[in-house]
Amino acid sequence: MESIQHRSPGMPLSSTSRGKWTENIHTGHVAIVSTRAAYDSQVLAAAGNPEVMVFMRSTAKPIQAAAGVTAGLIEYYGLPEAAIALLSASHRGGPEHIELLERMLELTSVREEQLAFHEDLPLGQAERDLAMRAGAIPRKLYHTCSGKHIGLLAYCKMMGWPLEGYTDFSHPLQDQLLGSVAAYTGLQPASIERAIDGCGLPVFRMPLSRLALAYARLGDASPNKSAADPLSAAPRIAAAMQAWPDMVEGEGRLATVLLKQGIVAKSGAQGVFALAVPAASIGAAVQIDDGGESAWPVITAGLLDQLRLNLPAAGVPDSERPALEGQLSSAAEAVRGQFPERMFSSTGEETGSRQALLSLVWA
Hints:
Layout: E1 11-18, E2 21-34, E3 43-47, E4 53-55, H1 61-71, H2 73-77, H3 82-87, H4 95-108, H5 125-133, H6 146-159, H7 172-185, E5 193-196, E6 202-207, H8 208-218, H9 234-243, H10 245-248, H11 254-259, E7 264-267, E8 272-277, E9 282-288, H12 296-309, H13 321-338, E10 342-344, E11 350-356, E12 361-362
Antiparallel strand pairs: 1-2, 1-11, 2-3, 2-9, 3-12, 4-6, 5-6, 7-8, 8-9, 10-11
Helix pairs in contact: 1-6, 1-7, 4-6, 7-8, 12-13
Region (Disordered): 1-20
Protein name: Asparaginase
InterPro entries: Asparaginase_II
């Protein structure tokens, strides 16, 4: 088993100050990968170690959804296209999420009690407060992973696989999900290590650069893929996530802010975040050593800024740069608007600030 002594800390990616002093330094790793033919899915830029081993956690959800979408799950049950966003979601448990989740149960005949995990209350604080004021009791649909699990159970029903034990490593469903992850990451299935995620499903461990590649491929809308290839579902999944960004996570979440700016993004637990900039043919993945997510926004805004300034190094043609520069600038400002770098106390007095420290090294 890997010990903490064998896990080297990453580079400083951001800091927070209080008064005139630095209060925290957030270290970690960043990998940026291009799918442009000239780069052959190689690492374009990095901070820290782009090959550090990470668990995908919930960044895997759109990739896992690709298995069922490729097999015709949406058409088989007549699910609305917005359901694809919930298959890929870590939703907050708001009324709009529950309404669509209940519709998915109705159309697939999956029963709520068949979901593997325990009952919960909404993950989002505002959504939890709303539910509790309405007298809600814990239920499985409130779990942040319920959309994914409904989709996986429906996929099992469609394929004639047993519903019992669908989270087990040996279940035929898990072979399909492993194959989908392998297709997006370019890894051999046997080389992908697995443990158990928070919702009970297997979770995939791989180099950070391969997670970045998976998102570069998720954002790739080129049509030259076999219909049976899980990669063929990428444009549809990315489009659904962008069309229903609040379904993917929720109002005020970093991934949702980026999706509204045309950037495909998804958070994971323990400091893992991934995104794709389709117009640049790149994917990026971030892992924060301390496992928190408070540093994500300032790091992401800094990453977008540095990408905007290095589009030639990313192989973006001159003719495409003005539009892409505008998109990246708007996305960075949207992130800063939702997550201000200046920090204030509950009395309104300024206490300090967040600052990006990452310095990407370009290949």
